[in-house]
Amino acid sequence: MPLPLLLTTAPTMKTSWPEFDSIASRLKGSRALTEMARVIANALEVDVCSIYTMNRVANELVLAATMGLSQSSVGRIRMTPDEGLVGLVAQELQPVLVEDAAGHPRFRYFESAGEDPFLSFFGVPLLHQGQLCGVLVVQTAERRDLHELWASVATAAIRIAEAVSQATLPA
Question: Model's pTM, two decimal places?
Answer without folding.
Answer: 0.85
